[in-house]
Amino acid sequence: MTKPLLEIKSLTKHFTSKQGFFSKEKVVRAVDGVNLTVYPGETVSIVGESGCGKSTTGRCILRLIEPTDGEILFEGNDIRKLNEEDLRRTRRDMQLVFQDPFASLNPRKTIGQILEDPLIIHEIGTPQERRRQVEEMIEIVGLSKQHLDRFPHEFSGGQRQRIGIARALILRPKLIIADEPVSALDVSIQAQILNLMQDLQKEFHLTYLFISHDLSVVRHISDRVAVMYLGKVVEVADKRSLYEKPTHPYTQALLSAVPVPNPHVTTQRIILEGDLPSPANPPSGCTFHPRCRHCMEICRTTAPPVRELAPDHFVSCHLEDADTIGSHT
Ligand SMILES: Nc1ncnc2c1ncn2[C@@H]1O[C@H](COP(=O)(O)OP(=O)(O)OP(=O)(O)O)[C@@H](O)[C@H]1O
Ligand SMILES: [Mg+2]
């Protein structure tokens, strides 16, 4: 069996903040016990509403923010236990692509400098070798050598995201965490960037952890999908079973809002009532219960365990646990 590239176990990130000197400390449970496994070469997506903890999960994996608890195993090594030098080396293998490429590209540097920086930081090659790598990479992402002497403001959104991808790829990483990489782009440009990412995945044997709130985009790119709600993964499955047989009422509601390409299929939109509750004050029991149309007594008091419904299809819901409702609506 293939070994996972990345294994996240009970990942937790609680932010603490204090409003005033005498006020009680507020704990925001941004990520609350996330488990996820990613195998080499696949694309796993994390989806969920704004504020459910997707970006925090991604940033914890890269240790851009320190997790509160849990294990993050990259090629079997817990990156929380690595010393400075080993962490630096591991970071070469894991790169981030941001939502807003403009904000993440230094406006005072040329594209050539931006792409060379990671190579300099990791002490790779002579200046000539680095220049060659940079020239090669800019062409791989569909731009040209002439672009290297220009500044980020001289590019369109789609071109900037190509530069963001080139910067992530220049160190030849194994894992790319892409946090809403196409959300800021026009739909036509989104497709180009997604296709580029898929081509690059094949060419460089990349593994993607793809973060998005857009289920149409996720459907296009993923092999497996993890649905997050209020800091927890509530359902994980391969793309086909998730889209054909969504089981958690939250997944069903999210999917019912996605337009279906087949005009003969009519799906009933499930309207989620209320907003995402605050992760500073999560509901008791199953945190989805106040918005769930199947809420039972047990849901108010007890957090549901994770069940494997079918091979590789996991869900955390009392309905499945109690077998109360067999059919999937
Ligand atoms: N530095 C921080 N300090 C305090 N709370 C934070 C911090 N960063 C994030 N949070 C909170 O943690 C929760 C999860 O945030 P996160 O950015 O991970 O969500 P997200 O799923 O990426 O949302 P979006 O789709 O809007 O990007 C939110 O309630 C957010 O307000
Ligand atoms: Mg985010």
TrEMBL record:
Domain ABC transporter: 6-255
UniProt protein name: Peptide/nickel transport system ATP-binding protein/oligopeptide transport system ATP-binding protein
InterPro entries linked: AAA+_ATPase, ABC_transp_ATP-bind, ABC_transporter-like_ATP-bd, ABC_transporter-like_CS, Oligopep_ABC_C, P-loop_NTPase
Family: Belongs to the ABC transporter superfamily.
Species, as recorded: Brevibacillus centrosporus
Keywords: ATP-binding, Nucleotide-binding, Transport
Gene Ontology molecular functions: ATP binding; ATP hydrolysis activity
Listed PROSITE patterns: ABC_TRANSPORTER_1, ABC_TRANSPORTER_2
GO biological process, one term: transmembrane transport
Superkingdom of the source species: Bacteria
Lineage of the organism: Bacteria, Bacillati, Bacillota, Bacilli, Bacillales
